[in-house]
Write a structure and sequence with these properties.
Largest interface: A-B, 35 and 37 residues
CATH class of chain B: Mainly Alpha
CATH class of the largest domain in chain A: Alpha Beta
Helix content of chain A: 40-55%
Order of helices and strands of chain B: HHHHEEHHHHHHH
CATH topology of the largest domain in chain A: Rossmann fold
Radius of gyration of chain B: 19 Å
CATH architecture of chain B: Orthogonal Bundle
Largest sheet of chain B: 2 strands, antiparallel
Number of strands of chain B: 2
Number of domains of chain B: 1
Order of helices and strands of chain A: HEHEHEHEEHEHEHEHEHEHHHEEEE
Strand content of chain A: 15-25%
Distance between the termini of chain A: 85 Å
Number of helices of chain B: 11
CATH architecture of the largest domain in chain A: 3-Layer(aba) Sandwich
Strand order of the largest sheet of chain B: 1-2
Number of strands of chain A: 14
Strand order of the largest sheet of chain A: 2-1-3-4-5
Helix content of chain B: over 70%
Largest sheet of chain A: 5 strands, parallel
CATH superfamily of the largest domain in chain A: Response regulator
Shape of chain B: globular
Radius of gyration of chain A: 23 Å
Oligomer: heterodimer
Distance between the termini of chain B: 59 Å
Chain lengths: 380, 294
């Protein structure tokens, strides 16, 4: 009898102890959807790497309020169907309390109805303006809008007294969204689009379009696309001896572009997040500290340069961390805290969310950089 | 003057792209003429040529010429093993089944390339500089001249090979009637293997020589392969001048269409031409109609 009681006490004691252990170690589960493979892997890969690096760093320094983070990453392959499957898995099987990603606008739009219905906060890393316009209760984003990038270029062109421009955009989601913004904002800035050309994402020769532009009255060319198309444009422009300035979008702000475009890259101007010129920023820049911190850590972990795509994931994790620290225990509380984020200095810019604005950035999130001797040069 | 200069640039751009299509088209023609099948993995040999050359050049740090030779060699070996492992074991298979196998092989090769080399696009350095050459106000790159030269070289070589050498004649005999060919002592299997060897070698050469212009990545073969296929259909599956003219015509129409109508229709133009030719003259533009005796 006494032996049995002893046994029961023993079992009870251990189960309490175990429960305590389980309780203390129960990690905060965060889901992540990135296009690690497929055509948009240039976005998803650095984003996943950054997110994993950040979670490891946070856990090393004791987690958030003593609780470790657990990151569950699924690859969407840039495919909206796979993204929806993955988001369902994250919510139903993995029971995450918040999700970061997806990497592309298409994937993000596809998963939004799912997270809205399940009431799980989502911080998208894609750029499309549709994601947070109109505002959706559970959806935030970290990547800079095309709207801001276009505004930045037009502002600069206006300062250069250039008013007649040619645009050359790729016929995919990124390019057509850019084209839309370029035409929409041209009136506002007094720009006249003389030539409006497009090219296919797989095209390998754009001399025809550029010849047309060369013989028009355009004073500048704006090309909107992601690698490798813009690199071909840059090379073809050099081949044709075009001497009006060439502008690119933020879609090519990685070293890969300079490598592909070779000599053709020289002198090209593009809007970009501050990451690629972190060391050239003046000390007074509020983002300088966060940026150099990110660049150094990324280089330490992965031996390659961090880019501003990875920065979107950095911002998403840090915004989430802030919201959880301020008291977000449940998905609903995290959402409320996210919306109250004010002046968070990240990689993409300084974020201030509000019930009317879930994108959180202004046009100073971009700087203009010029390619000089195979490197980025900040235009002041 | 301006519009003349513009037109001339379109023509020049069109011809340079056309030569690329023709080069890729050759590979289709040679295998088709020896076996009656259309090898849809042809575009992958173009990709392999470019990627392998890049691999030897940048990863193994070999000089340009050995890299090119090795790249052609390795792609040819891939072509050979493709024939030995996937085509030959299927005795008496219908051409349609074999064509489907080539599509499978192309997906397989592309997937392997993606796993080995990743998904990034790469550029090969130009063989002789990037300074454009001016011809009457229009420009082309030295690399285009290399492409034209290789195309001409291949026409001449294939002409001599198929019309004057014993092996070449034997290959033509197999294409015409494999049974009769084997009755007169031609080893049909060897001829089929040889056609794969030649076409994968030509495909990889094309891939290497265009890589400095178009850049290369694991999936570059799909579109280039299809354009090469268009060229060879226009040319009536000939392994000589017909395919070259087909390629040049395709390139020209694409460039003029993009220049005067809209660049958005560039690919559409190529495939509309393909459809029209398949409807109206399935034997190709430059081929005399064959009469079959029964």
């Amino acid at each position: 009898m006494s032996r049995n009681i002893f046994r029961i006490i023993f079992v009870l004691f251990f189960s309490v102890l175990m429960a305590g252990v389980v309780f203390a170690a129960s990690p905060i589960k965060i889901g992540a959807l990135f296009s690690v493979s497929g055509p948009a892997s240039f976005l998803g890969e650095p984003e996943r790497n950054t997110a994993q690096m950040m979670v490891a760093e946070i856990n090393k320094s004791g987690g958030i309020k003593g609780r470790k983070l657990e990151l569950i990453v699924y690859d969407t392959q840039g495919d909206a169907t796979k993204a929806v499957q993955a988001v369902n898995k994250l919510i139903k099987d993995d029971k995450v309390i918040a999700i970061i990603g997806p990497s592309t606008t298409g994937d993000s739009m596809a998963v939004i109805p799912v997270v809205e219905k399940a009431e799980i906060p989502l911080i998208s890393c894609a750029a499309g303006i549709k994601i947070t316009d109109p505002v959706k209760k559970w959806v935030f984003k970290t990547a800079q809008n095309d709207v801001l990038a276009v505004a930045k270029i037009y502002e600069y062109l206006k300062g250069q007294k250039i008013a007649k421009i040619a645009i050359l955009t790729v016929s995919d989601g990124f390019g057509s969204s850019g084209r839309e913004q370029l035409t929409l904002q041209s009136k506002e800035f007094g720009m006249q689009i003389i030539s409006d050309e497009t090219y296919g994402p797989k095209d390998t020769d754009m001399t025809v379009q550029l010849t047309k532009i060369r013989d028009s009255e355009a004073q500048a060319i704006i090309c909107w696309g992601t690698n490798p198309g813009p690199a071909v444009v840059a090379r073809n422009a050099k081949q044709l001896g075009i001497n009006i300035p060439l502008y690119m979008s933020h879609g090519v702000s990685s070293k890969k572009f300079i490598e592909l475009a070779g000599d053709g890259a020289e002198g090209i101007i593009l809007p970009s997040g501050r990451v690629i010129v972190a060391d050239q920023l003046p000390k007074s820049d509020p983002q300088k500290k966060a940026l150099t911190n990110y660049v150094n850590k990324y280089r330490e972990h992965y031996k390659v340069e961090g880019d501003h795509f990875g920065g979107h994931a950095w911002d998403a994790i840090m915004l989430l961390k802030g919201a959880i620290e301020r008291g977000g225990k449940s998905p609903a509380a995290i959402r409320d805290q996210l919306e109250k984020t004010k002046k968070f200095v990240g990689i993409g810019g300084t974020f201030s969310y509000s019930p009317q604005d879930h994108a959180g950035l202004t046009s100073d999130a971009f700087v203009l950089v010029q390619i000089k001797q195979n490197d980025w040069k900040l235009i002041k | 003057m301006n519009s003349f200069r513009q037109l001339f640039q379109y023509i020049l751009s069109g011809l340079s792209n056309g030569a690329i299509y023709a080069l890729i088209g050759f590979g289709f023609a040679i295998i088709h003429n020896a076996t009656g099948i259309i090898n849809f993995a042809q575009g992958e040999f173009v990709m392999l040529g470019g990627m392998l050359a890049l691999f030897f050049l940048t990863i193994l740090k070999l000089p340009l010429v050995p890299s090119i030779v090795l790249a052609i060699l390795v792609s040819t070996i891939v072509g050979m093993s493709f024939e030995r492992l996937a085509i030959r074991p299927l005795k008496n298979a219908k051409p349609l089944n074999l064509i489907i196998i080539t599509i499978g092989a192309s997906i397989f090769i592309r997937g392997m390339a993606m796993l080995i080399w990743g998904k990034d696009t790469h550029a090969l350095p130009a063989f002789s500089g990037n300074d454009p050459l001016y011809i009457a106000g229009a420009t082309i790159l030295p690399q285009h001249l290399w492409i034209f030269a290789l195309t001409i070289l291949i026409i001449i070589a294939s002409r001599i090979f198929f019309n004057y050498s014993l092996v070449g004649k034997a290959m033509r005999a197999c294409a015409y009637n494999p049974q009769a060919a084997s009755l007169v002592g031609i080893d049909v299997k060897i001829m089929v293997l040889l056609s794969f060897v030649i076409s994968s070698a030509i495909g990889s050469m094309a891939g290497i020589i265009i890589a400095p212009l178009t850049m290369t990545s694991y999936d570059v073969g799909i579109m280039l392969g299809l354009k090469g296929f268009c060229a060879v259909i226009i040319g009536g599956m000939s392994s000589g001048l017909g395919t070259v003219l087909g390629g040049l015509l395709l390139g020209l129409l694409e460039a003029l269409g993009a220049g005067f109508i809209s660049a958005s229709y560039k690919d559409a133009i190529a495939f509309i031409i393909l459809l029209v030719i398949l409807f109206i003259r399935p034997e190709g533009l430059f081929k005399k109609k064959e009469t079959e005796r029964v």
